[in-house]
């Protein structure tokens, strides 16, 4: 019974919590939003913290839309 309670406490219940967990998983496993380091000239430098935050917010919005979709 204690195992059942701990499982329920750690699982997200509303769509926003599920979307947040999905966003965190994608961001951590893929490095989403961090930009790619480039060598040499002409490459785009590392992203600023504001650009990184914007990328994560965009990803959260996409995850939220996906989680809230009605199954067809």
- Count of DSSP helices? 3
Alpha-carbon Rg, integer: 17 Å
Total domain modules: 1
**Helix proportion of residues, in percent?**
55-70%
Q: Please give the alpha-carbon distance between the first and last residues.
A: 36 Å
Mean pLDDT comes to 80
- Tell me, briefly, the overall form: elongated
Tell me the strand percentage band: under 5%
Count of DSSP strands: 0
Structural class: mainly alpha
SSE order, as H and E? HHH
Task: Sketch the major β-sheet.
Answer: none
Which parts are unreliable, with pLDDT below 50 for 5 consecutive residues or more? none
Question: Could you explain the architecture of this structure?
Answer:
This protein has 72 residues and is mostly helical. It has one domain. It has three helices and no strands. The longest helix is centred in the C-terminal third of the chain and has 20 residues. The protein is elongated and about 40 Å long. The mean pLDDT is 80.
Summarize the SSE layout with pairings:
Blueprint (H helix, E strand, L loop, with lengths): L1 H9 L4 H16 L18 H20 L4
């Amino acid at each position: 019974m204690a195992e059942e309670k701990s499982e329920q406490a750690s699982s997200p219940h509303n769509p926003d919590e599920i979307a947040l967990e999905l966003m965190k998983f994608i961001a951590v496993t893929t490095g989403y939003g961090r930009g790619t380091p480039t060598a040499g000239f002409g490459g785009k430098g590392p992203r600023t913290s504001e650009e990184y935050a914007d990328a994560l917010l965009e990803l959260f919005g996409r995850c939220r839309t996906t989680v809230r979709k009605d199954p067809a």
